[in-house]
Amino acid sequence: GLMAARAMRVLLFKDAAERRERQDDYVSAFQGAFPGANVQCVPVLSIGPTAGSEAVLVAELEEMGTQDLLALTSQHAAAAVSRAVASSERARTAVESAGADGRVFAVGAKTAQSLPAGVLATGLSAGTGGVLAAHIASKARGEGASAQLGGRVLYPCGETRRPELETALAEADVEVVPVPVYASTQRSPEAIQADLDAALADIDSLSGLGSSRHGAEAAAAPGGVTRGSLLPAGAPAAAAAGMPRAATVLCFFSPRGAEAAFR
């Protein structure tokens, strides 16, 4: 008899941005464009603590004043705070006191949940660093019920980060102390290849995909993999609309993912 048709597979060579309690925008867009498709993300980055950052963060937390704030826009930063207070009772006391006074701010439920047990956070369920900065700046200016937020803003963050929070607070004359505590590094081609092999275990070979993956044509390749389509840059929905229909589609967002898949 005939075999049942296999569901379409889409592999996105990017890190799933499951922030603010919602699914990655690209995963959602592709699932909407291709109902029933199996859409997976193959991470190309590894995120971890930076060397020596814990000692720096511990020292900053221990010196937090009674007017200082703690701003967190990432669960990785919140996890770094958790590690820091686990190694210093003085840092723990400072952070717990700040939380009790409403001076700990976290963007997103996952960020707040990554804080140490017992630390209260003023959570913003949705938003960005810029939204958080506006919220903090309004209190620093004395708007609303809480007008006593006049200290520094301690900002555990990534080595590479968006500038909105620091820029907006600087414009509001609020002192920001960024403390880089984690970094994003490229995963090795071997690690990416292992994920690809697991995702495509039932496909014999990716040979023949070759180096024309950035071409304008959409030529079929062995194993039902399609190569060569250029997806529109920008909105996830536009990318999904431009994606070719095939049994399996590999979608690359950086040279590293493509290099690993075709090495």
Helix content: 25-40%
How many helices? The count is 10
What is the radius of gyration?
23 Å
Number of distinct beta strands: 11
Strand line-up in the sheet with most strands: 3-8-7-4-5-6
Mean pLDDT: 75
- Return the structural class: alpha/beta
Which stretches are poorly predicted, pLDDT < 50 over at least 5 residues? 1-5, 205-227
- The end-to-end span amounts to 37 Å
The fraction of residues in strands falls at 15-25%
Task: Explain how this protein is built.
The strands form two sheets. A six-stranded mixed β-sheet has the order 3-8-7-4-5-6. Strands 2-1-11-10-9 form a five-stranded mixed β-sheet, with helices on both faces. With 263 residues, the protein is α/β, with parallel strands linked by helices. The protein is elongated and about 60 Å long. Helix content is 35%, strand content 20%. Helix 2 packs across helix 3 (75-87). The chain has ten helices and eleven strands. The chain has helices at 25-33, 53-62, 75-87, 89-100, 109-113, 129-140, 164-171, 189-199, 236-241, 255-261, and strands at residues 9-13, 38-41, 45-49, 69-72, 104-107, 122-124, 153-158, 176-186, 219-220, 225-227, 248-252. A hairpin with a 4-residue loop joins strand 9 (219-220) and strand 10 (225-227).
Task: Please sum up the structure shown.
This protein is α/β, with parallel strands linked by helices and 263 residues long. The protein contains ten helices and eleven strands. The strands form two sheets. It has a six-stranded mixed sheet. The chain has a five-stranded mixed sheet with strand order 2-1-11-10-9, with helices on both faces.
